Amino acid sequence: MRVLVTGGAGFIGANFVLRTLATRPDAQLTVLDKFTYAANPSTLQPVADRIRVVRGDIADAATVDPLVAESDLVVNFAAESHNDNSLADPSAFVQTNLVGTYTLLEAVRRHDVRLHHISTDEVYGDLDLDDPTRFTEETAYNPSSPYSSTKAGSDMLVRAWVRSFGIAATISNCSNNYGPYQHIEKFIPRQITNVLTGVRPKLYGDGRNVRDWIHVDDHNDAVWAVVDRGRIGETYLIGADGEVDNRTVVEAILTALGQPADAFDFVTDRAGHDRRYAIDSHRLRTELGWRPAYTDFASGLAATIAWYRENRDWWAPHKEGVEAAYARTQQILD
Ligand code: NAD
Ligand code: TDX
């Protein structure tokens, strides 16, 4: 099977490439990636002789068209993915998440190629802390940020191309991923690398926002389950029952690294900050038989902390720049 992995040099896409090489010897992988600030070329370096890597933009039809034409499957991970960046400047989010997805859709339509589109639970907006419900495939879209609204728009484009043009596509909406190779702008790796460099972790607002954590390998196994067994035109929610509030995550990181659990700072809250995400992945489990392997967040987090401790070369050159950018927008609260 010839698979085009767009965004395959980023966090989830690169983990997808590594896991697919390890588990699916039949797959021939081509990565199409723009290598924005979010891509780390060293992630795929060890497997460079086993894949093809093309540097290019999913919004560039001339690049996309021949690559799609020669593929059996496109898995679209490419996106601008960080909420904080989307608040500072939404333009790249509109361009990549909307125009890029549109460009891929036109190519798969032209060449009749199967597409799986990777999306997020953030398209559903947020839940109150005491809301007994969780997101399902039937929940109405209600995105909050420039990031999540462009992801919501990209999902809508996919659905419309299925209905109007009969393309063979599926969508999955996953909750917050953690694991190796995640950019250190994101919450968990930011706080791990803060502690490892002697900087106090930074919690937005009151630190009680809840995220539904899933290990990146569980996400990618679910993606393959949808590709292998999912119904064309359907959406599948991916989640591993991993709800934890941010303060609890930071306290666990501090404790694991031998620091007092209260050695963190509260900083200015994110504008429009979603309170809570929670996924009901019933459809994925019952229809497709998927189960997460990482059911204990504490041990998955411990393995992730160990990875960042052992792979300093991967992130250390970027640490100062990431923190300098945050320092320009965030104030420590008394
Ligand atoms: P990431 O930012 O780590 O990686 C994105 C990759 O896409 C990078 O390699 C980047 O260079 C590439 N890219 C950006 N613009 C591009 C363009 N125009 N053309 C080609 N490549 C481009 O993101 P991630 O966390 O790996 O997320 C991957 C996908 O999963 C995204 O679609 C995101 O919305 C979705 N998602 C992420 C999470 C999460 O917790 N990280 C959860 C659910 C869904
Ligand atoms: O320094 C921080 N302090 C903090 O308290 C950072 C970076 C974040 N936070 C909070 C904000 C969120 O409540 O931690 C939580 C997680 O933040 P992010 O890592 O920025 O993730 P989130 O905004 O929840 O979005 C993530 O999950 C869904 C991914 O970045 C998206 O790509 C995905 O769609």
TrEMBL record:
What biological process terms from GO does the record include? nucleotide-sugar metabolic process
* Protein's UniProt keywords contain NAD: yes
Report the InterPro entries cross-referenced here. dTDP_Gluc_deHydtase, NAD(P)-bd_dom, NAD(P)-bd_dom_sf
What are the recorded GO MF terms, alphabetically?
A: dTDP-glucose 4,6-dehydratase activity
Can you name this protein?
Answer: dTDP-glucose 4,6-dehydratase
Q: Which domain of life is it from?
A: Bacteria
Which catalysed reactions does the entry list for this protein? dTDP-alpha-D-glucose = dTDP-4-dehydro-6-deoxy-alpha-D-glucose + H2O
Q: Pfam families in the record, alphabetically?
A: GDP_Man_Dehyd (PF16363)
Enzyme Commission numbers on file: 4.2.1.46
Query: Which family is this protein grouped under?
Result: Belongs to the NAD(P)-dependent epimerase/dehydratase family. dTDP-glucose dehydratase subfamily.
Coiled-coil zones: none
Residue span(s) of domain NAD(P)-binding: 4-295
Keywords per UniProt = Lyase, NAD
Cofactor list: NAD(+)
